[in-house]
Recover the amino acids of this structure.
């Protein structure tokens, strides 16, 4: 029987739960769910996904192997906004980890009443990650989301302030843990206790592509050139070869899988290219600021694509390239040439983006703090006048 991954927004009857658990799919979030369920609590996992992280197809595996019930929520738009406008800066690469956590907790907070949840739990471990899991960051996340008393971190709970769920007796604090640091000994003991299968245990480094320098470099190039990039643009960054000439972007397949993905990714305004009679890669030329590209740009992208085919390089004279744009397909002839004016994105672009946006975010936070202080003063003055 075909099964369906549960997606937030399905028209199914809404059950009520004691708490919602953020499910990244990493080991810590899985253990958090199992640790709380051991107390007899009814829990619903919430798995967020975007072009940068997440795997909604795994929800069925969690259910089958561990009995974890979870919904999957697309947070792409909110994550992309954070890349253009980070509030609390980036990590080592292009990862706005604190902002990302704030986004997901805020989204989860918005559906607490719908599911009758009394708390939101996360798999955060005090001191495990240098940017987002030190004490100040955990407190900032709690404050920025307005989740004081409602945000539970079971793996480190005994090192943190007691939550409403613990004070009320809904959650037994004595059964929670005091894990901290980057060691995994405590987690592996829980793996044995709960008999977690190996196939659901991901690397402790996590699966966020924003932490990978190659992907981050591609994302930053896109962010710099296109002010309104969407999820389809960022997904295109996740595979194949990428070359830019100013505002012109061509993606060239490395293998059959890339070629298939490029065909699936093609939008009506894209130009898809393939050699007419020779074996070789497929290329996708994506216009950035208009629906059409100039003929010379199309020819250059076709030349560059052809240069990655041994058969085209061995050919004598020009080669024929089929170019499809919308419903129109035409064949052009080009010389085979590796274009040195079409450039691979470089890390310096990502670094410059990080520095500029981090400073903007800092200025915004200062402005917000100043406004908050003045708001308090104005309220006090108004009260005194009365």
């Amino acid at each position: 029987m075909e099964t369906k991954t549960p997606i937030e927004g399905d028209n199914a009857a809404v059950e009520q739960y004691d708490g919602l658990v953020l499910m990244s799919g990493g080991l810590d979030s899985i253990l958090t769910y199992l640790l709380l369920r051991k107390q007899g609590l009814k829990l619903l996992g919430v798995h967020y996904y975007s072009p940068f992280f997440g795997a909604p197809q795994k929800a069925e595996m969690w259910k089958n192997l561990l009995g974890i019930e979870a919904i999957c929520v697309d947070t792409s738009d909110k994550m992309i906004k954070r890349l253009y406008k980070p509030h609390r800066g980036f990590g080592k690469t292009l990862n706005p980890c604190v902002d990302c956590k704030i986004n997901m907790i805020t989204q989860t907070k918005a559906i607490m009443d719908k599911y009758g949840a009394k708390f939101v739990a996360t798999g955060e471990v005090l001191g495990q990650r240098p940017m987002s899991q030190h004490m100040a960051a955990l407190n900032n996340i709690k404050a920025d989301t307005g989740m004081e008393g409602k945000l539970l971190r079971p793996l480190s709970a005994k090192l943190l302030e007691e939550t409403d769920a613990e004070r009320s007796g809904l959650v037994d604090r004595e059964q929670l843990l005091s894990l901290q640091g980057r060691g995994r000994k405590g987690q592996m003991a829980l793996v044995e206790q709960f008999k977690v299968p190996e196939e659901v245990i991901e690397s402790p480094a996590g699966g966020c592509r924003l932490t990978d320098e190659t992907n981050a470099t591609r994302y930053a190039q896109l962010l710099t050139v296109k002010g309104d990039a969407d999820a389809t643009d960022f997904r295109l960054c996740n595979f194949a070869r990428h070359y830019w000439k100013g505002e012109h972007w061509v993606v060239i397949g490395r293998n059959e899988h890339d070629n298939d993905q490029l065909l699936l990714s093609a939008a009506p305004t894209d130009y898809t290219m393939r050699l007419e009679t020779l074996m070789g890669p497929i290329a996708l030329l994506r216009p950035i600021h208009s629906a059409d590209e100039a003929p010379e740009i199309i020819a250059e992208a076709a030349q560059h694509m052809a240069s990655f085919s041994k058969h085209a390089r061995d050919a004598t004279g020009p080669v024929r390239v089929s170019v499809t744009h919308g419903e129109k397909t035409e064949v052009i002839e080009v010389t085979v040439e590796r274009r040195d004016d079409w450039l691979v994105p470089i890390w310096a672009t990502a670094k410059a983006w990080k520095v500029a946006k981090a400073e903007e975010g800092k200025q915004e936070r200062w402005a917000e703090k100043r406004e908050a202080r003045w708001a308090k003063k104005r309220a006090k003055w108004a009260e005194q006048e009365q």
Remarks:
- Confidence is low (pLDDT under 50) at residues 1-5.
